[in-house]
Specification:
About 25% of the residues lie in helices and about 35% in strands. It is built from 11 helices and 25 strands.
Amino acid sequence: MYTGLLYSALDRENYLQAAATRIRETKFYIQVTMNTMSRLARQLVGTRTPHTIKVRVIEKEEMYTSTQGNCLEYQIITFEDQEGAKLKTILHNEELVMFQGVIQDEMENEINNIEIQVSADEILESPEQPVYYISINSKTTIQPVYGPNSTSSPEYILLASIPREPSLDERYNVLGIVVYVGQKYEVLRHNRNPWDVIDIFIIDQSSEQMVIVTVWGEATINICRTLQITAHNFPMIGITALMTSYQKGFSLATTHLTFINLNPQGEDAAALRDWGEANKELLAAKHQHICEVRCPETQRFITTIQTLLQKKDTLQEEHHWLRVQLKDFDHKKVRFYLGCSECGTGNNEDFGVGYICTECFTEKAISTPRMAVTFEATDETGAYFFTALTQNAEKLLEVNATTLYCMLPQEREDYLGQIGRQIRNAHIYIQVIPTKSLSRTQVMGWILKQLSLT
């Protein structure tokens, strides 16, 4: 970089032309992610420290259609930061659908996980007020700002009023008392890239059943770290734009539009805050219950069927061990079928044929023998019906499913009859978990997760 004096107008002109050429051939990038303090666009130039930028929508141009043959629709959006600097971005088909709820005129937003490019021509033509260009990526979040100085606030609904039926389009805003904040873990999504995830348990006055909110991505996880510090005080939060999830029963999950408000205001917030203060003992008991379930003792603790059936305050992820007998075991209730080698879902393929499973989307699934055994388990307090699927059924029958499937009918009948007599005279240990209907409909049911003969 030249630091001397340029004495003549010709020297200055030649230097500026050379500098302009270098600038045009150089791209300036700023990586922007979540931080607790919002920054201005000009403060981000040349920095690599993660930040959040707060903007408002000032212009939405008309929709355009690409002329490159792919017929993609796109729209140019112009934002303005708190100092008046202009930032432009281009949203394409899926991004327009994803962010349509927050890309509204004059709406204030915080944008995280973006890349800002400064135009060289803009720097030369308007060095005091250049236009910044935002590149959207798969982890970008655009979140509405709700706070004391905001002109808008979300409409919250009670947790019990959220439909328990799957919906890909609906989004929900909720208030909740934070009962427990889990540790961060990684999940591989469809693109096979790992995502950071944290589960938080919340509750409100509409139901005694807690709801898990699965928090995705850096923007909201940083806020969860703050909640982990204050969770012992059972803080109240507001969470917007949540979607329903049914992978592990019923739960909620954050989206690209989710905003977590650590200090929500309004009548509903005040009512829930008062309820939380009046029910500290209840919240403490639920917190302790979660800790016991998530950090179980290594020693196997045996419960009874009667205790299991009388349980009311149950978490979706808890499990219990039973010591039972199968006195009425009927080997004729062993069912065979061909299913996916990965997830076990039944199919109409022949044994050994490769195919694409429509349930787990495994591209190299193999049609494999599977089996299921239904039996009545009894102990000194009661009885309950369970079904053991392939892996547990193999332990119970002490034979591989493929081996049994390939036996001649009479050979299979003789073997099952013999092993059935042994089973009826033995005690076995089974680990059971709640069915997914617990968190969906709050109807209690139990299924077999693990089986042990010793």
